[in-house]
């Protein structure tokens, strides 16, 4: 009788090798150029794909185990939040503006990142980055899903949540993050990795993640908070993927350096323009503020950015072009954006309001050189209109920037009393930009940006032809979801229900 | 071709004038008056009188600014594509040299209620 042999158990190293690297093969009957048609055209040279290091060395079975555990915990908390009317724990219903903006603007971006990473996971010729990108793709769709579920309890009771998917495609301010991701998804695989994996998920990620998650914690939003905890370890992996991508490209061939530099310059600028919406959120939309945009920038932009680019200097990489213009904008953009969102509140699927007296004191303290001089007078005007029984709205449609798609409400870097105007003529047609940074991005790839779907110019074309009532229907914007917070159903309902659960 | 592409990459522009059924876009900016946060997008036909666009579209949009009632319309400094320009409100958009997506700007010297004077 044979003694049954117990099968040999694989150690971690062997498992990783067999279940990732060894899954690849050398094609024998098709040409590699047919199978991977996108790896050469960007000019990035790769001599040895096996040099791509995966610091996490995750196999799919380990991945599923960790993620499933997070999902179990996550949904238990989401259930408890819903069962206990967690929505009533937020500071007040003004806070919901921040997470409506998040759901409409950021969650669809997670979905776009999922598609983008799935695509590059297929297009890379090396098994190391293929596996890492495929895992990130699954992470990103999980983030999209968990964010939508985090919002679901609020969606039951408040306006502005339910039509996020349609609004993401059609409304005006959502075209800012939408075009950002469309730009990345229609770029080549290497550019996509520098755009999203490196610039967004490494350099700028804290400027998105920390404000929203801390904002949730400070304002009693357990659902969003718990999403943040659930995503945190995914984000750690994403950061290392981003850093690994750039190091891999820079180490493979010195010819890659100027290409990567151009991408860093472009995507840092595009990312900073996108983050102006976060700046407005931090400074204006949180009843209990965490820190100012200026403070967040000083830590996550200046300190961390300087350390990073000191590190990358040894490869010949310089800090991003337009860094100085970004620095000059930090004490201005949140105010410029929020004044804009306030005056166009009839067209947003979230509420805006004028700052209170204590908000104003906070803003003066955090922005001693800019707020009182440049922006308080305009807020005081809006407050005076309200006190007189009116409301300040701007029914003029704004000029949008061809590149970042924000309204051109930014000022000259050296003169905050003057809007910045930049114009380029390309093949007989005029294009407008909010800044040198955006003009430069356009001029590097005009064939791409002439195709930009700009919401305001599009509104005047077929089929809407400027009909604002038809536009509201087309973007699924119900009047109850728009406008001043003070008159909103959200405010009335929140206060009524809060009274019901309190003895005050 | 500036864009790096894996083949031919040429597409029509999304906002070309042909998409506006005989009309065109214009942009107008009242310098140093940023209560209205961004330049206005205006809409008209090339053979439309510029004065009609100014009266019917531009002036109502400028009205919220406290300086509006004090504007001396004869003292306005106009520019178009960065160059000084004198509009003729009785002539058409086309006769005024305003092509599709052109922006004109104007200054009302001495008026600065809500925004500090230039450069301050």
Number of domains of chain A: 1
Q: DSSP strand (E) fraction of chain A?
A: under 5%
Helicity of chain B, as a percent range? 10-25%
Number of strands of chain A: 4
Q: Radius of gyration of chain A, Cα only, in angstroms?
A: 24 Å
Q: Roughly what is the average pLDDT of chain B, rounded to an integer?
A: 96
Largest interface, counted with CB-CB under 8 A?
A: A-B, 56 and 53 residues
CATH topology of chain B: Ubiquitin-like (UB roll)
Order of helices and strands of chain B: EEHEEE
Total beta-strand segments of chain B: 5
CATH superfamily of chain B: Phenol hydroxylase
Helix content of chain A: 55-70%
What is the H/E string of chain A?
HHHHHHHHHHHHHHHHHHEEEEHHHHH
| Unreliable residue runs of chain B | none
- Describe the strand arrangement of the main beta sheet of chain A, using strand numbers: 1-2
Task: Please characterize this protein's 3D structure.
- The complex is a heterodimer of chains A (504) and B (120).
- Chain A is mostly helical.
- Chain A has a single domain, classed as Ribonucleotide Reductase, subunit A, CATH 1.10.620.
- Chain A is 60% helix and 3% strand.
- Chain A is globular and about 95 Å long.
- The mean pLDDT of chain A is 95.
- With 120 residues, chain B is of the alpha+beta class.
- Chain B has a single domain (20-107), classed as Ubiquitin-like (UB roll), CATH 3.10.20.560.
- In chain B, 11% of the residues lie in helices and 20% in strands.
- Chain B is built from 1 helix and 5 strands, in the order ββαβββ.
- In chain B, strands 2-1-5-3-4 form a 5-stranded mixed beta sheet, with helices on one face.
- In chain B, strand 3 (77-80) and strand 4 (83-84) form a beta hairpin.
- The radius of gyration of chain B is 17 Å and the shape is globular.
- The model of chain B has no long low-confidence stretch (mean pLDDT 96).
- Chains A and B meet through helix 16, helix 18, strand 2, strand 4 and helix 20 of A and strand 1, strand 2 and strand 5 of B.
């Amino acid at each position: 009788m044979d003694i049954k042999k117990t099968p040999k158990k694989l150690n971690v190293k062997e498992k990783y090798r067999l279940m990732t690297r060894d899954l690849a093969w050398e094609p024998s009957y098709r040409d590699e150029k047919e199978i991977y048609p996108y790896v050469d055209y960007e000019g990035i040279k790769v001599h040895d794909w096996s040099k791509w290091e995966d610091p996490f060395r995750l196999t799919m079975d380990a991945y599923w185990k960790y993620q499933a555990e997070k999902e179990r915990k996550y949904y238990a908390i989401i259930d408890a939040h819903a069962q206990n009317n967690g929505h009533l724990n937020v500071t007040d219903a003004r806070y919901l503006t921040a997470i409506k903006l998040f759901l409409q603007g950021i969650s669809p971006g997670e979905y776009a990142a999922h598609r983008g990473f799935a695509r590059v996971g297929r297009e890379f010729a090396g098994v190391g980055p293929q596996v890492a990108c495929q895992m990130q793709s699954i992470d990103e769709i999980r983030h999209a899903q968990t964010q939508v579920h985090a919002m679901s309890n609020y969606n039951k009771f408040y306006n502005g949540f339910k039509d996020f998917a349609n609004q993401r495609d059609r409304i005006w301010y959502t075209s800012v993050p939408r075009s950002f991701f469309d730009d990345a998804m229609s770029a080549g695989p290497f550019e996509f990795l520098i755009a999203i994996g490196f610039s967004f998920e490494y350099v700028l990620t804290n400027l998105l993640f920390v404000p929203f998650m801390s904002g949730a914690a400070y304002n009693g939003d357990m659902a969003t908070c718990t999403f943040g905890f659930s995503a945190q370890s995914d984000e750690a992996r994403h950061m290392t993927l981003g850093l690994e991508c750039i190091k891999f490209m820079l180490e493979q061939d010195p010819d890659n350096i100027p290409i990567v530099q151009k991408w860093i310059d472009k995507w840092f600028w595009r990312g900073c323009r996108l983050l102006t919406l976060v700046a407005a959120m931090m400074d204006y939309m949180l009843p209990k503020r965490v820190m100012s945009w200026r403070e967040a920038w000083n830590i996550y932009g200046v300190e961390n950015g300087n350390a990073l680019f000191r590190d990358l200097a040894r490869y010949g990489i310089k800090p991003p072009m337009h860094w100085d213009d970004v620095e000059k904008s930090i004490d201005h953009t949140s105010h410029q954006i929020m004044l804009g969102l306030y005056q166009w509140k009839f067209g947003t699927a979230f509420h805006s309001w004028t700052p209170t007296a204590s908000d104003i004191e906070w803003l003066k303290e955090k922005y001693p050189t800019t707020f009182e001089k440049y922006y308080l007078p305009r807020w005081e005007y809006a407050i005076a209109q309200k006190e007189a029984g009116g409301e300040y709205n701007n029914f003029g449609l704004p000029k949008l920037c061809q590149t970042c798609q924000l309204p051109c409400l930014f000022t000259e870097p050296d003169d905050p009393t003057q809007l910045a105007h930049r114009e380029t003529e390309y093949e007989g047609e005029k294009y407008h930009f909010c800044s040198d940074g955006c003009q430069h991005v356009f001029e590097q790839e005009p064939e791409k940006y002439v195709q930009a779907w700009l919401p305001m110019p599009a509104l005047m074309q077929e089929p809407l032809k400027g009909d604002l009532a038809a536009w509201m229907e087309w973007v699924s914007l119900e009047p109850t979801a728009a406008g001043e917070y003070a008159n909103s159903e959200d405010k009335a309902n929140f206060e009524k229900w809060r009274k019901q659960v309190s003895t005050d | 071709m500036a864009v790096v592409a894996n083949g031919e990459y040429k597409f029509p522009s999304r906002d070309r004038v042909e998409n506006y059924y005989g009309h065109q876009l214009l942009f107008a900016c009242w310098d140093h008056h940023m209560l209205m946060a961004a330049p206005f997008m205006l809409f008209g036909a090339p053979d439309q009188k510029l004065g009609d666009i100014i009266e019917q579209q531009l002036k109502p949009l400028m009205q919220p600014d406290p300086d509006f009632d004090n504007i001396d319309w004869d003292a306005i400094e106009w520019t178009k594509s960065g160059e000084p320009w004198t509009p003729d409100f009785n002539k058409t958009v086309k006769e005024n040299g305003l092509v599709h997506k052109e922006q004109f700007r104007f200054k009302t010297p001495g008026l600065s209620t809500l925004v500090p004077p230039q450069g301050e």
